[in-house]
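Fold these two proteins, one after the other.
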Amino acid sequence: MTNNRRMRHGGRVLALSAAALGMVAAMAGPASADDQPTRAQLIADCDSGAGKCTFNDPELGQAYLGGFHRVSDSLYNCSTSSATQSMTWSDTVGSTDSAGVSVTAGGKIADIIDLSVTATYSHTWSSSHSETSSVNMTVKPGEVGWISRAQVMQTVSGTWQTHYDDRKWGHYFWFVPDVVTGPAPNGTDGRSNAVVVKSRKMTAQEKRSCSSRSGRARTFVVHG
């Protein structure tokens, strides 16, 4: 029991140092830069199971509304009056870590973070969110419209503890701080997802495309 307390205490001290040093071994003794793993190597060992990993002391940040991004096809209005059409949109928002690496839904890393957040906050954490719906979109003549969406996002910060059965890079334990940004449930901290219709004037080339279309002027959809 005493040894366990010492190990936990040592982990907390090293985690604090890791914020400044970026990475630190949990065992005493100097190591050259060549002997130290990269952050990517440690996370890869967590993901593959080569190292036994936990995500310690998770802290959820304040939820915020992420940036708007296009989630639908484009509707071109080549007619002389406003056109309204039902447009389907689909969106999937994932998670990334502090190095900008994707945290894959259903992967070992995502499962470890979820386990840690659930134990601390008594609610699950999801590395991705998918949603599909439709909107009646009105586009003025000579314009092109599309649907954009913004997802409620939230960060979770913590420290990865990687434990090896045999010494690796000279140590049994390594610690690395991390911040993961991912989608949060709608309504978290009073923030709500948003869906908006956006439009712009057609370019000269797009207008020429309208005039070259056979038959009377009308609307058309361009995918992507």
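Now the second one:
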Amino acid sequence: MSTDVLNTDEAVEASPAPVRPRIRTRLAGRAPAPPPPGTALHAVSAATAVLLVLVAIGSLIHEPVLIPPLAASAAIIHSVPGLPLAQPRSVIAGHLLCAVVGYAVAASLGTTPWAAALAAGIGLAVMTVARTPHSPACATSVVIVLHTPQPASFVPLLVGSTVLLVLAGWALSYARPGAARYPAYWW
């Protein structure tokens, strides 16, 4: 009789240790993989360059051209150029529609934070109905209600800035071979 046969009472099944996901995998969750370093560098450089151009234009004409919503728009255009909210229709028309909403709310309800919040919500509704989703544009209505810039100077600068952001996105998408082409559609 062999001595290497175990008694059934002594048999222990070797179960594998529970597989725990690595910490990095858990932190990543379901988010998409990061872009390759070249793509990320191109997007960041392009967005930064166009924002610096807006600052330079503002310095030349002595008007604040760079407002926070435009920085967010630049980030969207250069980081996720295929999304509907990054398309020219949404960027330009979204900011313009929310500017109109911002001025209308400021004129009718005043320049309180309550009115600014309401303007953002109404702006979102108007963009949704107009099929021009662009979340940073909601902030444009907030800026208008809280800071009440003169429409005669602010609106042309806003439209010009959004057109510049779109044209920069278009031009810079061709500057890097193999980059995603922007826009997916113009209107």
